[in-house]
Amino acid sequence: MGDAEQVDVVVIGLGVGGEEAAGRLAEAGLSVVGIEHTLVGGECPYWGCIPTKMMIRAGNALAEARRVPALAGTSQVQPDWTPVARRIREEATDTWDDKVAVDRLVGKGGRFVRGRAAIAGPGRVTVGEQEFLARRGIVVATGTAAVIPPIDGLSGTPYWTNREAVEAETLPATLVVLGGGAIGLELSQAMARFGVDVTIIEGSDRLLAMEEPESSETVTTALAEDGIKTRTGVRAHRVDHSGDLFSVTLSDGSTVTGERLLVATGRTARLDGLGLDTVGIDAARFLTTDEWMRAGDKIWGVGDVTGNGAFTHMAMYEADVAVRDILGQGGLPADYRARPRVTFTDPEVGAVGLTEKQARESGIEVAVGYSSLSSSSRGFIHGPGNAGFIKLIADRSRGVLVGATSAGPCGGEVLGALSVAVTAAVPIASLRATIWAYPTFHRAIGDAMRQL
């Protein structure tokens, strides 16, 4: 290997956060090398946010058509996965090609290198036979991979992760899903609405275990209405595969079977072989950073790899903080008090900040406000598919919201007002005095305010 090539910044991993950081630093006039061994753009455009929401949009369209008899006459729907698979392939340029994303980075002045990168000491990054010396520093944005639990018999079987599920050109007749979090629930409901017989296995005592109990109850009821069976409080003990059938033995001794098995049991950072030990960083499951996204001396971490929320919006947010720090622009450091997240089931479940349980465990003097969406005027007008609620978590002593959940047909959109309220610490007195337009879903925020 020859002398290292000197550049300003090396960005390892060009998912959403890495591409954003590399592009903005290049536009600022720095010499930037971006390294990616898979696809520039990361999980989101190819196997995550965008294609899965296409699947969900298609499933929701079928569900709405089936609601016509209760609202407007008669309807007959014949599900067909073909246009869904075609639309996903068109968005992913058919062969999951990233030329558009690479050209976008290069067009901003960045340099792209395809390969696996490893840190070889302070400021030093190797990619095959190439070596770079980053004067300003290194940005680590290697993202996450699906966690594959050590279940007896699972290894070596043709199980699905979210990637195989998104790439499917045809759907199975039956599907077993391991994991009752956002990914498992979204894919389960979308496929169920196309006629797939789905069974979800979740080790916790409820689905969406990290969210409010009311969210779990609302989503569980909605999934049951789509014919989805859920088994909570049990874990997969063993997996067997023969021919076209998976058989999953559960911890209670029962067995469930399916033509396909989807593993959606969480995500873990891609850190293996990265060489973080050469710069004194001992990372376990995720890369720990400070409020400026610094993971070490001249090392920044952004996106899913930091463990601060595997969401595109979080990756973009963290990239912005890191870029401003690298460029010495100042501004506000990272603040995670009002992390927003949306589970795109039908109904959608949007949440921001703390849950009631988290707030109480933090020692906050909690006040709770709640309103049912189905009993609101807009819920009555909406008719079928109107399940949902607004739940507000307030710090009574400070007089501000510290968390909120918005579940309903437009739960993710209604969340916007609540995100602003939590982020800006808007006084509850001001929120209570706000004029909420009628008849809207977001007017239920005002109803919940009165319960505080």
Features:
FAD/NAD(P)-binding domain, eight-stranded mixed β-sheet, 3 domains, 22 strands, Enolase-like, domain 1, globular
Outline of this structure?
With 452 residues, this protein is α/β, with parallel strands linked by helices. The protein has helices at 16-27, 43-47, 49-66, 82-91, 99-107, 162-167, 182-192, 213-225, 312-326, 356-361, 377-382, 411-423, 428-432, 443-451, and strands at residues 5-12, 32-36, 111-114, 117-121, 124-127, 130-140, 144-146, 174-178, 197-202, 229-232, 236-242, 245-250, 255-258, 260-263, 267-269, 294-296, 299-301, 340-343, 348-353, 366-372, 389-395, 400-408.
Describe the structure.
The protein is an alpha/beta fold and 452 residues long. It has three domains: 5-41 and 98-146 and 268-326, 3-Layer(bba) Sandwich (FAD/NAD(P)-binding domain); 162-265, FAD/NAD(P)-binding domain; 340-451, Enolase-like, domain 1. The protein contains 14 helices and 22 strands. The strands form five sheets. Strands 1, 2, 3, 4, 5, 6, 16 and 17 form an eight-stranded mixed sheet that branches. It has a five-stranded antiparallel sheet with strand order 18-19-22-21-20, sandwiched between helices. A hairpin with a 4-residue loop joins strand 18 (340-343) and strand 19 (348-353). The model has no long low-confidence stretch (mean pLDDT 96).
